[in-house]
Amino acid sequence: MYAWPASEVPALPGQGRGLRIHDTATGGLVTLDPGPVARIYVCGITPYDATHMGHAATYNAFDLVQRVWLDTKRQVHYVQNVTDVDDPLLERAQRDDIDWVALAEKETALFREDMTALRMLPPKHYIGAVEAIPGIVPLVERLRDAGAAYELDGDIYFSVESDPNFGKVSNLDAAAMRLLSAERGGDPDRPGKKNPLDPMLWMAARPGEPSWDGGSLGRGRPGWHIECVAIALDHLGMGFDVQGGGSDLAFPHHEMGASHAQVLTGEFPMAKAYVHAGMVALHGEKMSKSKGNLVFVSQLRRDGVDPVAIRLALLAHHYRADWEWTDQVLQDAVARLDRWRAAVSRPDGPPAEALVEEIRVALGHDLDAPAALAAVDRWAAEQEERGGTDSGAPGVVSRAVDALLGVAL
Which of 42, 55, 171, 287 could in theory staple to 244 by disulfide, Cβ–Cβ 3.0 to 4.6 A? Predict the structure, then answer.
């Protein structure tokens, strides 16, 4: 599977800042110190509907992570998956009387278009679950043969009790885990499981559903969590720098994936930091496909909204915050974009070196994009009120907000 084209990231004068970021596993800020190549895995979409603002906010957060690292002259090895076979996709295809493969391809293509328009830097490896199946099967067999997995009516389940570090990502108690498992794709009430929390690794073929040769596992398809584990281990290995996604992935997805990987390799942890973006609401409820309360990036683009304004609307909220999309949020972003573009189009301005440093400091402290935006606002206001004498400053500001915030002026 291929990703989307990369926009150019301008080089900036001076020295980029390191990154301190909130780690769900420890509950506090951690200092990330990658080597020359920073490694990040971000969980991708299940392509049964278009990119909504919740998706966009999540991928915007991890785009900022990449930009901070690139500013330190590191390379970034970014991997993202596409869950291009799963129950929600199959159910939507059946509802709309469309082939599930065609639906997945259509929505993945639209996602690429949205990411390109929003200037999200693409992953180096963009991998679909279906193409990862040849690498998934041996991992499930290894877990089964090691006694960390068991069969139940042809399905293969992972035993969470096989990992002594299970629970150290989300730090939830068993009752909370069971509740979230039922809400987020698990089956804690299925009779015969050794532990209600045990997740499925391999689903035996069901009538009328797609399946693949699973070798000694029989025909079937992979579970959700093992998909990402196989892709991450193949392309990044253990101990990579950041495992990212929305806050609703901390449990069960990232918790289970970490346990799979840790049992497979005997190493801990799977990732140095588990970083989670907040949820975006509409009319008081979290945007979700099941509720249908969605604002789509593609629809806003069709309505003539500048994608740069959409990006500024996302950046106006701290990545970990839960917030609500409103018409006013978008109007404020459009007005800010107009002010910034007017500012950098003038011939002179106040010196920009201090502003670049302010943006770097803000992003280096847990990706504080609102603080970075406020710094640019102050520079633009000063230029409008008092002008400036530095003919190079507008160009430096333009390149800085492009490189560090992904905002093209």
Answer: 42
- Domain(s) labelled CATH 3.40.50.620 in the chain stretch across 19-297
Cβ 399 vs Cβ 12: under 8 Å: yes
Structure tokens at 264: 């497979």
194-211 pLDDT, tens digit per residue, is 999 999 999 999 999 999
Q: Looking at the predicted structure, is the pLDDT value of residue 33 above 90?
A: yes
pLDDT in tens, 213-264: 999 999 999 999 999 999 999 999 999 999 999 999 999 999 999 999 999 9
Sign of CA dihedral 184, 206, 289, 123: positive
CA distance 303 to 14: 40
HSE, side-chain direction, 13 A CA sphere, residue 274: 24
CATH of 19-297, one of 1.10.1240.10, 3.40.50.620, 3.90.1640.10, 3.40.50.2300: 3.40.50.620
C-alpha–C-alpha distance, residues 88 and 90, integer Å:
6
pLDDT of amino acid 292: 73
Q: What is the pLDDT at residue 351?
A: 94
Cα dihedral value 172, 173, 175, 176, nearest 10 = -10
What is the spatial distance between Cα 148 and Cα 280, in angstroms, rounded to a whole number?
A: 37
Which residue in 396, 388, 395 sits closest to 357, CA to CA?
396
Classify residue 238 by its DSSP letter.
T
The closest of 71, 75, 184, 84 to 128, measured between CA atoms, is: 84
Q: Are 83 and 44 in contact (CB under 8 A)?
A: yes
Helices (H), 168-249: 174-183, 224-235
| Per-residue pLDDT at 365 exceeds 90 | yes
Q: Residues 92-121: pLDDT tens digits?
A: 999 999 999 999 999 999 999 999 999 999
Is-contact 323 317, C-beta < 8 A?
yes
The CATH code for residues 304-405 is: 1.20.120.640
Instruction: Report pLDDT digits (tens) over 309-338.
Output: 999 999 999 999 999 999 999 999 999 999
Question: Where in the chain do CATH 1.20.120.640 domains reside?
Answer: 304-405
Range list of β-strands (E), 205-291: 220-222, 240-246, 271-277, 280-282, 285-286
**Closest CA relative to residue 53, chosen from 223, 394, 301:** 301
Cβ within 8 Å of residue 348, ≥6 positions away: 383, 387, 388, 389, 390, 391, 393, 394
